Amino acid sequence: MALYECGPWRPGRDARFKKTEVCQTCSKLKNVCQVCLLDLEYGLPVQVRDTALAINSNDAIPKSDVNREYFAEEHDRRARAGIDYESSYGKVRANDTILKLQRTTPYYKRNRAHVCSFYVRGECTRGAECPYRHEMPITGELSQQNIKDRYYGVNDPVALKLLNKAGEMPSLVPPEDESIKTLYVGGLNERIREQDL
């Protein structure tokens, strides 16, 4: 993974400054956002996506610096020649777990400004002009993320929390009596007729 320093930029007027964490090649290899490292299709951490879709991506991208750079350069060369990288992302159908966990609405809290470190120490003199949030930070295991672990999809506390949530979700079990053929369809309005179904 090539750490990539792109100057800070803002997604909106009151949003926090963001920076690009990985290069475009590395983000394409894993199909993740360059900033937040979440999957582009489902908005989930890499570990959750790979576990739910049964994709083993840990061996696909080398972890050592020299091998990783060679791999990225080779991928770029092949992309310029028109040869696509053989990736399993997007080829596997989303299963029930992915569909339950994926984020379908924007998560606006992601764009909030960072917490003011001077405020935490009780020394912020800017007051209302301070571009950072004046509130105490939330600590816990979710605040201790490692960006490389998140990219490679290992030891990610957010992913583990989501996977535990998926394990606790109820799932539909087909009835034991195979003669039952009834199917309930809900959430339809009066424009949908029986023949449409």
TrEMBL record:
Checking Pfam families in the record gives:
STL11_N, Torus
Chain intervals annotated as zinc finger (C3H1-type): 110-137
Q: Which residues cross the membrane?
A: none
A GO molecular function term, named singly, is:
DNA binding
Instruction: Provide the leader sequence positions.
Output: none
- C3H1-type domain segment(s): 110-137
* CC per GO annotation: Prp19 complex; U2-type catalytic step 1 spliceosome; U2-type catalytic step 2 spliceosome
* Keyword Magnesium tagged: no
Key words of the record:
DNA-binding, Metal-binding, RNA-binding, Zinc, Zinc-finger
Reply yes or no: does the keyword DNA-binding apply. yes
Q: What is this protein called?
A: C3H1-type domain-containing protein
Task: Tell me what organism the protein belongs to.
Answer: Stephania yunnanensis
